[in-house]
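Q: Two folds, back to back.
A: First:
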Amino acid sequence: VQLVESGGGLVQPGGPLRLSCAASGFSFRDYYMSWVRQAPGKGLEWVSEINSGGGSTYYADSVKGRFTASRDNAKNTLYLQMNSLKPEDTALYYCAASHGSWGQGTQVTVSS
């Protein structure tokens, strides 16, 4: 089982960024997927969840209306479109499968 996040980087406040999470070694289409983040010096914060078919999504209040989770089950890939980014969105972003596997994370830094 492997989850590999990508797409992180440095972005200015107000800018967009799109994260990807490539899954392998399990039946991706059968599992809910989540995004979780950890800001410097803070604990883990759940960001978003998407059901196995991609038709239902859930968001933390802190990102609702700015972030959009999606998935392409044909490509075994999870996405997180992040818009209107704020400095407080700076964190290490992880994708996680509902069976318990996590990726290694991708760093997002929002700064001018």
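A: Second:
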Amino acid sequence: EVQLVESGGGLVQPGGSLRLSCAASGFTFSRYWMYWVRQAPGKEREGIAAISFGGASIYYADSVKGRFTISQDNTRGNLALQMDSLATEDTAVYYCSACGKVWGQGTQVSVSS
């Protein structure tokens, strides 16, 4: 079964950090561009980070550039998103995706004092 499962979300204070993980199974992880996408309440989904197969290319949305870091472990089929200097506007459900074709169920990140 093709599957992506996110973990690592939670409640954090402004300025804090969280690390999200996305475990892939049922497909060859290293052959796809992998994305992190988030959706805040009442807003459309926003692509925030992308990494190419092999990790040669990485892109960030301006809203997270300099604060978030995407990485992948191809041998384990795991995608990660290190989130630092979190702000209240980062509150959203975070999804990982393989090329926009396979999606995880999402993990909630809430930033609040």
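Q: And?
A: The chain has no helices and eleven strands.
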